[in-house]
């Protein structure tokens, strides 16, 4: 089971003076159960890329395959694909609209054709998974805090039981604790339910802490596609693309230059702590 | 008295029922005292809902205190006749650059503020020149704003405020929607305005790394100021900050963890160089 892109190209306004290649010859495969991070500066093609994963955008060239089937082939059930691959947009709380949190989360499963009772069951399950208990069911979505709204909106997508969850900057604008809570819950969905997670983020620190693989987009192309340690070892090139490595990477490289034998591929605080203590012989 | 002063400031949001009667009041700001000297760079931290933005909106009279007083350059924001002058003294920049840009060409957008103030035309152009230079956007003056990157748009928004020659700029999470490069550009522009032009800066942010340049950090929780000090003083208190749902920069956290593991490293390390030097001294 996987999402596979073969030579995918997307061109805005082809054949006009406004022609712009948002994606150029993108080849990648995201296998079931992976936790993938996508990074890239604004305008690098990240959002265009993720909208190809569930058929919201149709490539102007190349193929998008879901479990080996061409999603743009004749009679392919695109609507079903959108339940398999759930997309959480930036600031998803702007899309909350129902009178109560529970009804809002029921909207997706109801649209999938589930009975009201089944939809409610799904919604309750999804809300529990994002840490919103019974006391929130009848609250108006607009009474919740920023972090709670964000989680209610994510529950709305989870309630459709996706196999793959794509999140576009789920922590933008949240305070540090709110950010950690959401990311921890996403990590739990990955480890407990085995959902494939694709996380778009501008925070290199968050990416380093959670994902097993990073795809770096630059000018519509895949610049790097590797484990975090490998990708962040190219931190000079990342800077040239308007990105950066986590602060830890810079610390470890600076220590190494000063002759302290640390592991310069450490990317998280804990890895760095262990490596520095070891290098100092403590 | 400094350029911004608040005394026993209280603000309550009112919730009305169907009949238009007050059903509930919630106190967003609870007896805050604040005194900001001209030319300072102040950072405000606090979790979502702690009252940061509500406080910010008092500084240019977008909100009027329920109790207490706010003075901007010696003018009370309660005095409606002074409101326009107050807003020229204290400019605001918000989170989303797309909501703040109205011109179809960069230079026109920047000129909008001074034109509204009735500044003579030749002066407007001089101000537009200066403001664009101050944020490093002169090369884009004839561009269309919607073709710019997030960081560039936000710098145009800041230039638009600078063109009104405010004494103070309040920035409410100006980098929340930007990529790392955009964040760097905006912060650089803000620091230069503060250093070179002497503009007082009040920066609200969730990014702890942006705070280390401030003269003073204010931490808010439940509408009150709960911590106040230099970045080093504030970031020395890792556990207290965490109890307010906040964090410290990664380098400060690593220093703290190494110290907890028994290394002789001072608390409140703020930069990569400081930590590297501290570790080198041990080996």
Summarize the structure.
Chain A: Its EC number is 7.-.-.-. Chain A: Keywords: ATP-binding, Cell membrane, Membrane, Nucleotide-binding, Translocase, Transport. The complex is a heterodimer of chains A (282) and B (283). With 282 residues, chain A is of the alpha/beta class.
Explained architecture:
The complex is a heterodimer of chains A (282) and B (283). Helix content of chain A is 40%, strand content 22%. Chain A has 11 helices and 10 strands. In chain A, helix 3 crosses helix 4. Chain B has a domain at 39-64 and 74-231: Rossmann fold, CATH 3.40.50.300. In chain B, strand 9 and strand 10 (224-229) form a beta hairpin. In chain B, helix 3 (106-116) runs parallel beside helix 5 (150-162) and helix 4 (121-134) crosses helix 5 (150-162). The longest helix of chain B has 17 residues, at 180-196. Chain B is globular, with a radius of gyration of 20 Å. Classes of the chains: A alpha/beta (282), B alpha/beta (283). The interface between A and B is large, with 39 and 43 residues. Chain A: It is a peripheral membrane protein. Chain A: Keywords: ATP-binding, Cell membrane, Membrane, Nucleotide-binding, Translocase, Transport. Chain A: ATP-binding (A) component of a common energy-coupling factor (ECF) ABC-transporter complex.
Could you estimate the helical fraction of the residues of chain A in percent? 25-40%
Say what the CATH topology of the domain at 39-64 and 74-231 in chain B is: Rossmann fold
What is the structural class of chain A?
alpha/beta
User: What distance separates the N and C termini of chain B?
Assistant: 49 Å
Give helix and strand order of chain A, one letter per element, not per position. Answer: EEEHEEHEHHHEHEHEEHHHH
Largest sheet of chain B: 6 strands, mixed
**CATH arch. level architecture of the domain at 39-64 and 74-231 in chain B:** 3-Layer(aba) Sandwich
Termini Cα gap of chain A = 46 Å
What is the number of E strands of chain B? 10
> How large is the count of helical segments of chain B?
10
- Basic shape of chain B: globular
Rounded to the nearest angstrom, the radius of gyration of chain B is 20 Å
Ranges of chain B where pLDDT stays below 50 over 5 or more residues in a row are none
The succession of helices and strands of chain B, N to C, reads EEEHEEHEHHHEHEEEHHHH
**Sheet with most strands of chain A:** 6 strands, mixed
Membrane topology (chain A): Peripheral membrane protein
GO cellular component, one term (chain A): ATP-binding cassette (ABC) transporter complex
Function (chain A): ATP-binding (A) component of a common energy-coupling factor (ECF) ABC-transporter complex.
Subunit structure (chain A): Forms a stable energy-coupling factor (ECF) transporter complex composed of 2 membrane-embedded substrate-binding proteins (S component), 2 ATP-binding proteins (A component) and 2 transmembrane proteins (T component).
């Amino acid at each position: 089971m996987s999402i596979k892109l073969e030579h995918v190209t997307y061109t805005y306004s082809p054949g006009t003076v406004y022609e712009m290649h948002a994606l150029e010859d993108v080849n990648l495969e995201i296998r079931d159960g992976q936790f993938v991070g996508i990074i890239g500066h604004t305008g690098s093609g990240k959002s265009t890329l993720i909208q190809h994963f569930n058929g919201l955008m149709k490539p102007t060239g190349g193929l998008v395959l879901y479990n080996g089937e061409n999603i743009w082939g004749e009679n392919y059930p695109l609507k079903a694909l959108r339940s398999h691959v759930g997309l959480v947009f930036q600031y998803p709380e702007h899309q909350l609209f129902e009178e109560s949190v529970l009804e809002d989360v029921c909207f997706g499963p109801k649209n999938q054709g589930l009975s009201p009772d089944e939809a409610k069951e799904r919604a309750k399950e999804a809300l529990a998974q994002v840490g919103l208990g019974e006391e929130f069911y009848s609250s108006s979505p607009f009474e919740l805090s920023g972090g709670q709204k964000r989680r209610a909106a994510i529950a709305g997508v989870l309630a459709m039981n996706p196999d793959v969850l794509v999140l576009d900057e789920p922590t933008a604008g949240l305070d540090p604790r709110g950010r950690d809570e959401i990311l921890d819950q996403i990590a739990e969905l990955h480890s407990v339910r085995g959902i494939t997670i694709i996380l778009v983020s501008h925070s290199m620190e968050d990416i380093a802490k959670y994902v097993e693989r990073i795809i770096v987009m630059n000018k519509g192309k895949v610049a790097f596609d590797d484990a975090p340690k490998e990708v962040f070892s190219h931190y000079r090139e990342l800077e040239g693309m308007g990105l950066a490595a986590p602060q830890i990477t810079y610390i470890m490289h600076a220590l190494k230059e000063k002759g302290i034998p640390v592991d310069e591929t450490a990317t998280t605080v804990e890895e760095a702590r262990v490596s520095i203590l070891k290098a100092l012989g403590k | 008295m400094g350029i911004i002063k608040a005394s026993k400031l209280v603000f309550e949001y009112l919730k009305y029922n169907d009949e238009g009667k007050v059903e509930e009041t919630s106190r967003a700001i609870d007896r805050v005292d604040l005194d900001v000297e001209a030319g300072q760079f102040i950072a405000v931290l606090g979790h979502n809902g702690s009252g940061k933005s509500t406080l910010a909106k008092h500084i240019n009279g977008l909100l009027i205190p329920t109790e207490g007083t706010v003075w901007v350059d010696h003018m009370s924001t309660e005095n409606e006749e002074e409101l326009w002058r107050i807003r020229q003294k204290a400019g605001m920049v918000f989170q989303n650059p797309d909501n703040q840009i109205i011109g179809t060409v960069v230079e026109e957008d920047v000129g909008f503020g001074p034109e509204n103030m009735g500044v003579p035309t030749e002066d407007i152009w001089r101000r537009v020149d200066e403001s664009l230079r101050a944020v490093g956007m002169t090369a884009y003056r004839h561009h269309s704003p919607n073709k710019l990157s997030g960081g560039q748009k936000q710098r145009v928004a800041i230039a638009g405020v600078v063109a009104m020659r405010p004494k103070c700029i309040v920035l409410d999470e100006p980098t929340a929607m930007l990529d790392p490069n955009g964040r760097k550009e905006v912060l650089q522009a803000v620091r230069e305005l503060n250093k070179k032009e002497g503009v007082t800066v009040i920066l609200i942010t969730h990014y702890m790394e942006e705070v280390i340049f401030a003269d003073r950090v204010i931490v808010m929780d439940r509408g009150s100021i709960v911590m106040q000090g230099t970045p080093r003083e504030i970031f020395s208190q890792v556990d207290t900050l965490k109890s307010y749902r906040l964090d410290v920069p990664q380098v400060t956290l690593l220093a703290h963890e190494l110290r907890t593991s028994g290394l002789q490293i001072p608390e409140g390390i703020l930069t990569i160089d400081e930590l590297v030097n501290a570790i080198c001294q041990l080996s």
